[in-house]
Design brief:
4 copies of one chain form a homotetramer. By secondary structure, chain A is mainly α. Chain A has helices at residues 6-34, 40-68, 74-77, 79-86, 94-105, 113-140, 151-162, 175-213. Chain A is 74% helix and 0% strand. Chain A is globular and about 55 Å long. Chains A, B, C, D: Residues 132-203 form the Potassium channel domain.
Chain lengths: 218, 218, 218, 218
């Protein structure tokens, strides 16, 4: 990453623009899904922004493929990038990388390690949860027998899913809605793992330090 | 913290009064929310206690801001204090600090490290859960189509949320009730992390000690 | 524990009888709760066994109090024993101690450390879950609007609670049933912590060993 | 395992065939459960494949019992193998071993330790979840008052159970369906433990390395 190969330079220069691009994509998608009463011109503008952002993602993927010189082996080796290209709602995760890039430019990171893990996990869950709530709302709100009818219902359902609580008062009923839901459950599991793992390792760290400072008879 | 700066001295002297103040705030709030048949005079007294406690929190925040000499950078640097000032129901968490202060005065802490983590996590969850159950009950009990109708329902719902079980037989239906619910879910995640992390690090500690004491062939 | 004080000798000699006594208590309670069509004489015998077991627990508590020579400080110092005396359904947990005692007599424990933690956690959860399912069934099965009507429902609900899943298709509706449910949720949290903590420390152990054995470049 | 005893050689040679056999068993079971409109001949072929695979498992168990020379002590010592023989839907877990065997033949494993744990946990959960969804669907889809009516419902229910979310919109109602459900909940607990434990130990690993590389004042 720190070397001066063409790939590294490309990634360094496209990081911030592509991150902004992801936010643009998410915003345009949100306006399209939530803006029921918008004039057609505004909807067309949003659709254009959506497609333009997607086009840029495609160009970036192509350039990185070409620069890598890996040929057909590039697709399985970068399966996460390929997935994100096909499902660009997962793109906002790149914001995490942008934040890192901005921090790196200003010098050394100012956040301690545990705070960084908590910050990244929180930001990723926030963005993924927002994208998931939008997508589930789009699939569900007009389905027959749907219980998720407003965007508020969808956000409430997303929170209860990410926290692994799962009340079940509102649930997706369509096939695509449930597929997105399974993805959100996986995020919830990862979030639980991140919270628990951070706490566990922080406790071990504290206990190790206290054990050094205090007399052994404590 | 152990130095003799004005801030440290202020915090040392206000710790116990502010902790009692938080308990007073929570008690007055509970009486206001649950005491439907109280005479108006008693309700006014509770409201007065509530406002007086809030005023003291404001004074404490102002004094600490002034003493810090940080100017406008104080608010983001102490965002947790700012949040607790705006949502004083989170205040009882200060009881944790009061307990620490009382312990420190009587000499060295008598609880071992793991017991302290368990004790603080339990106390925080108990106080936050009680405040959350009160707030959700206040929002929900008179809403149309509400399923949380009595304070017992609210406590039952709070417990199932904090344990990440989430039966869904009673759930908040109002916008504000659901917002408080999301906060309680986050507490539940943190509780799960605390329980798991403590157990994990305790096991590692025990195993490391057993590994030292026993022959390596065990 | 290994010394020869009167308390240690008393505990060593009463461990196995009191463990069998706990199993007798649980069995008699189960027969009383589930045996709707038993003849009165059989029910009276079960009740007598229940009371006799409880009496023995009381005698044991009294003897240990006397032997400790601690006076009134004994009750808070042994709060867990006091709780178990008041709620003897938690007694079967002593079986864990009995197993340990039996193992110790036959020589050194034959189970490795991780297996022992898993075994104790599993046995405790099994016994507590059975006792909880019995108690919830007793409270709920004849309550109005109850959803837990058969013992099978109660076992199903207990499993979904202990695993923190919480479907909510059957839930306790009485005040006492919900109180027992909160206790079971706490057991579920502890179980989750035990499973996660064991796995986490086992992984760390394996990784540390692999790290030693393999070349650092792996 | 690495020695040249007859058992080790038998296991080495039967690993891949038995793994393929497990996949055949699962496929035949899936076709039988899901293929409602198949011609009788095709159903008979599937049934034959099912029984043939089961017979091979029995032969393998018998040969390993004979080779071990342990007599009746073999059954409790290999209780997991015995369980898998009785419930062959748990068999696909052997695929994990097949993967290991294939990797070993090609030389040293190419996946790092954390990736291997994640890969095995993911593969096991996928196969067990598929088998569980099939079995629950078979038990439930024609039961009176069933809420799991299609295979899609069953998969959706399985995912919400494995992630410990438990919406409760569709739940098993038959005795056997609920028993399978309890097994899936245990898998969910183990999955949660695996995810959390991996993350926790990975964090500790990273923090330990960062602690070595950076100046202590960081």
């Amino acid at each position: 990453m720190d070397d001066d190969s063409p790939q590294a330079r490309w990634e360094r220069h496209t990081e911030v623009p592509l991150g902004l691009c992801s936010l643009l994509f998410l915003t345009a998608y949100a306006v399209l899904v939530l803006g029921h009463g918008l004039p057609p011109a505004a909807r067309d503008a949003c659709l254009a922004a959506l497609l333009a952002a997607w086009g840029l993602f495609l160009v970036d993927y192509g350039v990185r493929w070409r620069l890598s010189g890996q040929g057909p082996r590039f697709v399985p080796a970068h399966w996460l990038d390929t997935l994100v290209l096909v499902l660009p709602l997962l793109r906002p995760l790149r914001v995490v990388k942008v934040y890192e890039a901005v921090q790196r430019r200003r010098g050394r990171p100012r956040l301690a390690l545990y705070a960084r893990v908590a910050f990244y996990a929180g930001l990723s869950v926030l963005l993924l949860g927002f994208a998931g709530a939008l997508a589930v709302y789009q699939q569900e709100h007009s389905a027959p027998h749907a219980t998720i009818r407003t965007f508020g219902d969808s956000v409430w359902w997303t929170c209860s899913t990410l926290a692994a609580v799962g009340y079940g008062d509102v649930v997706p009923v369509t096939r695509l809605g449930r597929t997105i839901a399974v993805g959100l459950m996986a995020c919830g599991l990862a979030l639980l793992g991140a919270v628990t793992g951070s706490f566990s390792s922080w406790l071990l760290h504290v206990f190790a330090r206290e054990g050094d400072e205090r007399p052994p008879g404590f």
